[in-house]
Amino acid sequence: MFERTSCVDKINVEIFSFASIFQLGDSCIVNGLSRALAVQREAEIFYGNEGNLSPYRVFSEPIPLPLINEPISFLTHNQCPLIKVNNIDIIGVSSSSLLHVGNSKHVSMEARVKHIRQLLPVPRTDEGIENKKEEQGQR
User: Is 129 within a domain?
Assistant: First the structure.
């Protein structure tokens, strides 16, 4: 792997979370993995046995990666082996993300999130149906 010096004058990041990586300098292998179960409920009910990811296929299905079978050839010549960055200003890095200034040989990042919305059932009564008919001018 070709090595260069990474030089950063200023980095300002407000938030790093959920399997995120901040890397200055070279890395050979970077792997990031984040899994989340996001449940939104209309009522604040907690059952105590929640959080098991195994029933949800989204967490176990293989990710199809495209095959790269194109021949690639290139020649690199750096007169000054320096990666120079003046200023980086980021609000947030989250969910298996990477902020990297430097060289990487292999990078693999994966974030899987299952969103569930649980709404309360709509009450159905005969009185509610009659009121709707009256509002619409029907009998």
Answer: no
Rounded Cα distance, 83 and 8, in Å: 8
Q: DSSP letters of 79-107?
A: SS-EEEEEEEEEEEE-SS-EEEES-EEEE
Supply 75's token pair: 């020649």
Measuring CA to CA, which residue among 30, 35, 32 is closest to residue 57?
35
Query: What are the tens digits of pLDDT across the range 82-93?
Result: 888 999 999 999
- Is residue 130, in this structure, part of any structural domain at all? no
Per the structure, the count of domains in the chain is: 1
Residue 14, token pair as written in the block: 């407000």
Q: Is residue 23 part of a domain?
A: yes
H/E run at residue 2? none
- For residue range 33-87, what is the model confidence (pLDDT) as tens digits? 889 988 888 888 877 777 889 899 999 999 998 888 998 888 877 777 888 899 9
User: How many residues appear in the chain?
Assistant: 139
Predicted TM-score (pTM) of this structure = 0.64
